[in-house]
Amino acid sequence: SDLEKKEYHTKCFFINQKKTTAVCPYCNKKTKDHPLRKDINIKKDDILLIQDYVLLNNLKDKICLDFSSFFSLIYKDKKVIEDFIFRNYYIVSIKEKALLFLLKKLDMTFNQFIQKMNIYFLIITKEKKGATILFNKKEYNYYNTPFKEIETNGCGDIFLATFICELLKRTNINKKDIDEIYQLALKNVH
Fold this sequence. Notes:
Layout: E1 14-15, E2 19-21, E3 34-35, E4 48-51, E5 63-67, H1 78-85, E6 88-95, H2 96-106, H3 110-116, E7 118-125, E8 130-135, E9 138-143, H4 155-169, H5 175-189
Parallel strand pairs: 4-5, 5-6, 6-7
Antiparallel strand pairs: 1-2, 2-3, 7-8, 8-9
Helix pairs in contact: 4-5
């Protein structure tokens, strides 16, 4: 309900090459296709959340990638995909289906893919089955107990948002932290 308040402002919005979409951080309108402002100032400590394929050009700050749909990459050549995937990311959340597509498109094994990624934290989501998390060159597998879905819209966003928020709060992350964050993310999704 807070999102509906007129005075609510956010710097969390989507940018493509020509337009901004979702809630405009400048006028709070929810209509799509606001003209892209040229004076958007991305500060050094800002964390950018990119959803699926976006041309990133020279963005060098902390970037989180939420990669759930590979359809935007189906007709892209291998070089374009490599430039997009193999860059510096803070957190990447990728659906297992999208990962399998990338491995096939790039003609790589999972180990080759991981070796080439420059990433702090990788979450491979497997929908209701659980997730695999790679952190500090270690792999952690999580399996969910069965649950009844009520509404799936936005579950992935809430799941990833929990990880982003919790990782930013903590220092010297260890297995216990990852376990706690995963359980909190599951609770937020349910």
